[in-house]
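fwd from M.: "can u put these together and see what the complex looks like"

so here's what she sent:
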Amino acid sequence: MKPSIPKGTRDFSPVEMSRRNYIFDTIRSVFGLFGYRQIETPSMENLSTLMGKYGEEGDKLLFKIQNSGDYMSGLTDEELLSRNSLHLASKFCEKGLRYDLTVPFARFVVMHREELQFPFKRFQIQPVWRADRPQKGRYREFYQCDADVVGSDSLLYEIELVQMMDMVFSRFGIRVAIKLNNRKILAGIAEAIGQADKMVDITVAIDKLDKIGLDGVNAELADKGLPQEAIDKLQPIIRLEGSNSQKLDTIEKVLSGSETGLKGVEECRFILDGAEKLGMKNRLELDLTLARGLNYYTGAIFEVKALDVEIGSISGGGRYDNLTGIFGMPGVSGVGISFGADRIYDVLNQLDLYPKETEGGVKILFLNLGKDEAAFSMSAVMELRREGIAAELYPDEAKMKKQMSYANAGNVPFVGIVGSNELAEGKVTVKNMETGEQNLLAIPELKELLG
Amino acid sequence: MKPSIPKGTRDFSPVEMSRRNYIFDTIRSVFGLFGYRQIETPSMENLSTLMGKYGEEGDKLLFKIQNSGDYMSGLTDEELLSRNSLHLASKFCEKGLRYDLTVPFARFVVMHREELQFPFKRFQIQPVWRADRPQKGRYREFYQCDADVVGSDSLLYEIELVQMMDMVFSRFGIRVAIKLNNRKILAGIAEAIGQADKMVDITVAIDKLDKIGLDGVNAELADKGLPQEAIDKLQPIIRLEGSNSQKLDTIEKVLSGSETGLKGVEECRFILDGAEKLGMKNRLELDLTLARGLNYYTGAIFEVKALDVEIGSISGGGRYDNLTGIFGMPGVSGVGISFGADRIYDVLNQLDLYPKETEGGVKILFLNLGKDEAAFSMSAVMELRREGIAAELYPDEAKMKKQMSYANAGNVPFVGIVGSNELAEGKVTVKNMETGEQNLLAIPELKELLG
């Protein structure tokens, strides 16, 4: 029997784990500096919690867990023979695997509302599962890293989240553009030109300016049923240029008739000004073509693009107004962002940005040259470990070549050699594996070298 | 709709997460010092990998995942109407959730044998799932923390693992007894008294000495079918007392006729001597009644008991000889240990041993006393964060009482107050929430206080 793993899932090797931990630890530590606190929710939720929250397609992509015991009992012959897999799944299964971190978070807030202090700032780094067709870069099990604050509509949180994305990517050394939009501006534009129901069409068309040019965009707008008058009014928006504040001034003029739109302009101005005043390492730009999850977000919309690698967005988020409404707790406004760990992993790999420490492994491997030598080495190894220095001893008196190839495979920076001479002197010959240099050191000197 | 979570599963609050992270981080860091490297495997494995590995009872306790798409196709009416839930599960489901970390690790070693360097030292900290009846302290989703080395039969690894358990629990501040036994000694005893097939009965009976006394143990042995002569020979073993080396001397005499048994004595002596010579913070004791997973272990057996709390074992492990044989890769010896995170959590709680830092949360909360004051505070907050000091600003100009109750609920050690005076001076009034003391500080002084 040749073992395998389910398609769309992955094993992570020690080197991959060191890199993934570097990503998660960096994000976790920034979340902590900003006062977000970690929670975890169970991998399995009741299907009643999950179903109907991700659209019809989402329901199909949920991994469902078969009830234990006699899951067939109580089913009529007719039901069984109907072979209606969706209906029967609801009989066979009561639980499903987490599909994202948002719905479990909403469920958490509602269940624990009495214990929580609002505004509640939480982060969550856990795997999610989707029965998607596996393909390059798309997995059936992958991690999400989300930070959200619920129970406040203060725009200070939008500023904070922009700062947080800025700090995360500057710690990684990834140059990014952080893009900002606002659902209220998009709604306002559609409203101001008398086409309130065409918001999505307008956003999608404007997004194509780079690809199809101004005439192409205008043709598409006409194609979607916009009258010429409305298209004329849109021209300053489509050809929006200049600094963030110049753009906002232009938009403000177009939106003078829309209360919602002007509110959106005001919010954007506050967030852009606030974030810039606090100092940004990365570019922050207003981008009206940003439309992720339009139906979900109600205010600010964020997205982060890497500047030096061709890849989709590596972080994003926004403000939503009714996260917990689905569980009977209305009126809770929230705002949050999410980091795409798998894409960040790829970007760091492509740009070769992992710090050297993420190679992991021990700092020194002692060779095993005999029983007494090994006993002495083992006590040196334990002394180093007690000082917080990762160290190990080769377990057998194997051939030198075999021991050295173990050291090389482990990328060990130093090798410790204790033969009869070293044993007599109570010292260790230390070989620097990069330079080849060898020195005879006493244990305290060794600690100093490696500490 | 009132949301809930599946029975036997748990949400973890921020405080619980801080404590759990403290446990996992401590264990992870000790694993790293000893040269064990982290891997992760998918939450779901093919059922063909899992089935038959945990006994008949285990097969029933596997959580099975329903195939996506039309999982009913290809089934005859007869099959469906048989309502044979076990048979049909094998048709409906190809995947199951990880039941432990050992079988996935064996599968990992076999699948990646060409890329791995042996001996391969790995650790793994991930959740596992079991469809057990939930009860106090037993969950359907819980974490395991395992460290194993495969591909070497060197006893130096047994010594290393004993040292590792010793270091983990001394870092936690939990006083423990680390117990050692050896399957070869148990087999040798049964063999030496001519009752090779009664090894388990003998071990179980001896284990009851404290509860039922010597007469009780002897009666039970007779009851199990041991002849009087064999029981007589067992007396020195049942009444085994003294230091580890005195015990080994006694056992050695009884086992003089059993090659296997003498090998076990020699192994124990090597491990006990070796570990003691390296220095132990906790008691290490030979305990012949230790019999965990008898059928699985082939050499050393470890178990750790907390001395100051009544609770089952909080760590354990041993040597096994054929972990990967089930996947067609025979002859790979290994030895490993596992830490029980949930029980360690309970022990640390009961003994109140969590370091103060695990309270988590920010070091300082700035109150929000107005627009300009908030802008100044926000830039102070960002300066602190850039220095690695967790800080936040209350998001709205709410009533003082509300803001202070938020600070109290978050266990914030300091509160920063910026009113019009502070704003004019460019300073912050800092209140120590424990002592009530207040000081007016410039930002660099504030960094020094909190850094």
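replying to her w this: The radius of gyration of chain A is 29 Å.
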